[in-house]
Amino acid sequence: MRLEGMPAGHRLRYGPAAEGIERLEASLVGVAFSPHRHDTYAIGVTLAGVQTFRYRGESRHCLPGEWHVLHPDEVHDGAAGTGDGFGYRIFYIDPALVQEALGGAPLPFVADPVIRGRGVPASLAARLAGLDEPLDGFARVEVGVLVAGMLARYGSAQHGSAQHGSAQHGSARYGSARYGRRGPLPMAALARVRELIASDPVVRRPVEEFERVAGLDRWTIARQFRAAYGTSPTRFRTMRQLDLVRRLLLAGTPAREAAVAAGFADQAHMTRMFKRAYGRTPAAWRAALP
Q1: Which ranges carry the HTH araC/xylS-type domain (predicted)?
Q2: Which CATH architecture has domain 186-290?
Q3: Is the pLDDT of residue 27 over 60?
């Protein structure tokens, strides 16, 4: 990726997606992402320039060839470390796809987001390098397995390191211990809740309906939904509403109409939620696309 001479702004290019996988190439010159959070894993590689971001209270940076792993629902921003801007490619991976490979274990948590050296499987890196190549059913499964294995490996290693140091430096929250649970999760029940929300995110459903569908009480649903999918049911619904907004904007629907169609109170409400999720306003996001 060459950034020399590129005008100031934010450029986005999406590759062919698959269920639970979105791939993006982006470049930023003279602009930055404001603090935001996704409900997916964000696993990317810096291609050019120096990428800086704040994550879990610390300033991080990624040089070309270095990778970063951001957990769902963790607030972060993004900016260039120099005046030359930066470029990157990134996977957005639905935690449900990781769950398919984990078999019901709590999601791995990678506290240190920067991966240097050869820590990312070559076949996973190739799926991102081949951004314009379609992902068939088997490729989707392969990505899920590779991501789950990588996350589990780094999460376990960091968890062990934190436990080793806790005797001298105090405790830390890493890995599945972050959720206070290590055993298998009731994935069938949690999947029913997730599917109910995703089937029509415009509808705001009462908590009693989730309890009936899951056969679990509301407190258990709240705790274990996050352990399984990395976010809350409410946040999951908001992100599915924003998925609808993005589709409508790409189809040429005015922002005000898209907001109403997606179930937001008004355009201002939708814009606030959009910026919190993507770090840019709907107008800036749409303008960055080809």
Answers
A1: 191-288
A2: Orthogonal Bundle (1.10)
A3: yes
Q: How far apart are CA 122 and CA 118, in angstroms?
A: 8
Q: Write out the H or E segment, with its range, that includes residue 269.
A: helix 267-278
Residue 164 has what pLDDT?
Answer: 44
Q: What angle do CA 176, 178, 184 make, to 5 degrees?
A: 35
Model pTM score = 0.87
Burial, 220: exposed, middle or buried (Cβ in 10 Å; 0-12, 13-18, 19+)? middle
pLDDT digits (tens, 9 = 90+) for 28-43: 999 999 999 999 999 9
Model confidence over 140-184: pLDDT tens digits? 999 999 999 999 998 866 655 554 444 333 333 334 444 444 578
CA pair distance 47, 56, nearest whole angstrom:
23
* DSSP line for 275-288: HHHHSS-HHHHHHT
Where b means 16+ CB within 10 Å and e means fewer, 131-163 reads eeeebeeebbebbbbbbbbbbbebbeebbeebe
User: In the chain, what is the greatest distance between 2 CA atoms, to the nearest angstrom?
Assistant: 58
Which has the closest alpha carbon to 147: 205, 183, 98?
Answer: 98
We find that the CATH architecture of domain 9-151 is Sandwich (2.60)
